[in-house]
Amino acid sequence: MASKVMAPQPSKTHTGNGNVRRSTSASEREQALERELKILRTFVEQAPVGVIMLDRQLRCVQVSQHWLDGVGVTRDQLLTQSHYECFPNLPEDWKLAHSRGLAGESVSVQEERYVAPDGSEHWVSWQITPWGDSGETTGGIFIASEDVTERVHAQQESQKNASSIRSLLESAPQAVIAVSADGKIVLVNRDTEMMFGYQREELLGQPLDILIPESVRGRHSEHYQEYFAKMPSRRMGPGTNLTGRRKDGSNFPVEIGLSNYETAEGRFAVAFLVDITQRKRLEQVAQQHTQEIQTLAASLLTAKDEEDRKVSRELHDQICQQLASLAIDIGALVASPLPENMRRRLKSLQVRVVRTSEETRHIAHELHSSVIDNLGIVASLRDLCDQFSERNSDAELKFTGHAAPVVVPREAASCLYRVAQECLQNIAKHAAAKHISVKVAWLKGAVVLRIADDGDGFNLKAVKGQGGLGLIGMEERTRLVNGKLTITTQPHHGTRVDLEVPLPDVSKIAASHELSESGTISLEARLPHGASIT
Fold it and tell me: What was the pLDDT predicted at 369?
């Protein structure tokens, strides 16, 4: 049982041999007692916690103002009524604690809910201590109480926030791992357990290295120290090959985002991880399908070119020759003695046959220019430009090109020719250009074709979005020869197409064959009103 609070005792003066020499007078004893009581009242009144002193009948002997303020009653109410009359709704466990205190036991509670007489809810911390003379019974009890409502509410709010954060972490569709500055794991969520195959207890307090493949732990340690030195928030996502290690030792690709937070315990890094195994698999499948499509496209283009070449040869060598022979035979008939009306009809027929022969020859040329095979790419491009000028007399076309210093492979020559053909057809149909420039230049290791016009231009993204087959064909042909195609255009500012095709064994090219010292062509002098195609 705790010791009781004892009442002050009167003092006496003794002689050295133990006999009473002089007793304090009654008046002095009363004054001393009054001083002690005054000090006790002052202490009770000024106590920073609520204090009340009750006798054995639980009537108030003394009470602090702090206690009165806390319970919402007056001093007169407490002094004229018993404690239970003032507070008829006290919990039964409180009454039991009072009985235990009167029996000489000290009782305390850290946090307990209490409803004040006005109906307001409070949380209090209280302690009951017996007081009185030594003996079998006590004189009463001290009750010291403190209103801890704000502290309890703050704890409840903190717990609520912690619960919300925990729920958020647990429901996150990605693994979340918090790591301290010394590399120890301090927090994980359920997705982390599922992703790596560990139980939470197996991860907390462990070094982060257990989740990283052994082959990259050294590099990771350097990156980790660098990150904690700066603590930036960043995404270590696409373009980086990051790998995680499961409990069973298997590795898998991950995408990671990094963040950080700071508390009184220190700074922590937070990693958000996503298992991208399925994405990688789909990317590989997509890449494989893309390669298959590109291979198929290459085969189709090659087959088309070969078929065009074959059809062109058939048209030129067979149909055109037969039409020419037919025209000669008709001419011979015209020269024979025939009625005039018959002769006119035969002449008209001869003209139609010749026109058909020319159109057939043109079709054969469009399918495949034999000049490429016979005279080379520069001559075939010059011939293509001449044909454009004949059909489009309103536009001025300037062709610049030098003889090839090396033999150009058929695939490269075909790519250059078809891209130029497509560009000139587009200019004729859509550009309304007044000036066109076509230039072939031989750089070190490559041939460059540039076609520029001062026409209407177009929105490149919009055209690509519509799936224009012309642009797709140009890009695919360029890819087949490992070339580079660049299209620069915008509405009302003309168009420029640059095609660069690498060539084998081109190492000694005269400087005069290059586009220019800067590798560009300027059309500024040829454009109306000083406009420049860029």
Answer: 61
